[in-house]
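pasting input
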Amino acid sequence: MLFLKKDEYVIPQQLVKGEAGEFVRITDMTNPKALPVDPTFPFNQNLQLFLSGRKLLLDEIPFSLEEIHNHYLHGYVDYRQGVIFDGKRLYCCRCGNKDAVFFASFHCARCKKKCWYCRKCIMMGRVSQCTPLIIWTGPTPHFSFQKSLKWQGTLSPSQKDASIKIKEAVRERKELLVWAVCGAGKTEMLFEGIEEAIQSGKRTAIATPRTDVVLELTPRFQQVFPDIPIASLYGGSEDRHRYSPLVIATTHQLLRFHEAFDCLIIDEVDAFPYSADEMLQTAAELARKKNGSLIFLTATPKEVWQAECYRGKRNCVILPARFHRYPLPIPSFGWCGNWREKVKKGQIPLKILQWVKSRLVSGKQALIFFPHIELMEQALPYFQKMDGRIEAVHSEDPNRKEKVQAMRTGDIPILLTTTILERGVTFPNIDVAVVGAEDDTFTESALVQIAGRVGRSPQFPTGDITFFHYGITRAMIRSRNQLLRMNRQARMKGLIDS
Amino acid sequence: MQLFKTDLCLLCSSPIAPTINWESLLFGPNQKPICEKCYAQFSPIREPACKICNRSLDKLNPKFYQDGVCNDCIKWQQSSKWKNVLEKNTSLFEYNDFMAEVIARFKYRGDYAMAKIFSQQLKQLLQNIDYDLLVPIPLSEERLYERGFNQADSLALEAGAEPINLLRRIHSEKQSKKSRNERIHLPQVFQLSQAAPPFQNKHILLIDDVYTTGSTLRQAAVILLQAGAKTVQSLTLARG
């Protein structure tokens, strides 16, 4: 769209009635400034609740352009640039993309010019050079809730430690890394920190890379904060029209927020897509208030962060033990020769064969991880010769949910999988093998996560983890050492019983 | 160095390995817009296909076609108003789930770059069809503003053709929300564009993204024939 440029302000083309002047795109305006807030203006509270802390396209706002513009004229709303082009470099103001590969241009029917747009965040609607992003610049809504946490459970001593540190980070607006082993019970230790935030009027968001985690967390939080309206945001969710003190969202949805949160909690900070994708890091940066607290939750921080934690350079709290007080099962390594060649020839290395057979005999379920879909599918028929119920699953499998469900009910004895089942999914009593653990796909954090699938339930706290390999890698050794170190620490602190 | 530059797939963003052979060394790399894995998910129209609308017949129950013409087209041919209005339709791909996703991203999300995926193949098809004027199916003014571009126009432009606007859309309600029956008995949605150059006795090729029931294309064809066009064919990316 275009704006009619006046000395002190702009008017959207659609609202111009017969006035002449220069029509410009928001991208071509030099330094568009927000107007001063007029404190006597009777602003629309519904618009305030809807727009506060967000950064949206005009099409995403269910209020008329007249009303939005009227708020702009009184300093309550501002039009911001969407895509900036300085003649050489392009920048997307919504997702922070500056990689030329992810921009394209077309002759735009709105501005009648060649218009560059961002392809990186296109799935949230097109942001182009003539697209303004609309933000709220008026007062933010206040909320107050007395004692909103209704939770009867108790925290383990190590959860208690983490909970205190989280509360402190919220209160003092600090950054904190919570390094908690798989199965430590991350959710419960957030409760008191969030209670602290809500009582002091701080808006909080929990961001996680995956939609299924949003769907799982929302009812859990709603149960312990029954009076708080929680917004649950993911692609296609219904909740986007409400203002909430507590937002649970996929990391993607953070792109629609602008300096909104006093406290931002990022779950599985190492997981795809957050660590892989610069876009989502920018999103997290932009969605948080400038002095807001930032809390990372992870079982597998990247190497640099680990080192910073051990050297005391990063504010962190480590939870080395699971809530059930059993030690973490430790992976063993098994050399299996050039397994790729064998699979191509239609064979399975003997060691792997034996491992599988003994699970089939004892009836214990198992997951077997493969580095690539193609190799896994080639190998599947040879596994099925041992037991026809063996299945394989990968990210593009249309029957993914059904297969995981069949694994849960015990209808599948052994499931071959790519790294999609590396995190999040828990089966109560399984063993785990990795075929080709030397592959680059299996980073330190992937291997720690894979090992973390075993021994999750208090009824079955142990299990076998074998990394079948054709050459030991640094990632394999580091992952094993990480788990050993956690057990050592837990023992020292008296957090495990054996 | 451009020779070994890897492009990213327009659909899945994974790197596309450049093919290096004598041809690419001599004439520069033949740039592919998408990776092979994505390309394999499109389903090209294969013979036998309906002689009129180009719908694939091999998966169709033989009850539903006669002498190489599908029952839908037979019905169109039985109507005095619509008989021979659209001489022939040619489509590149079947409208499968993957194509539906790509077209949604193209039209509704507004990812213009999707038009580049098909430019080479459309270019080839255009060379094989005998026509004088290439006419995109227009959008209403409101819809054009909303989307920022006309998908039919973009497909033609990216294929290196010169589309000419002979039509204007006066009816703006969304087609995709209508049933087939409603579409067949629809009031005329097109008018001749006032700026249209003369096209008497010309062979016209309409271009659009999807052929679904064929009613949009036939409505456009009728107007053009009434105004003196010799024949009207159509070309669409997908056959629904």
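fyi Chain B has nine helices and ten strands.
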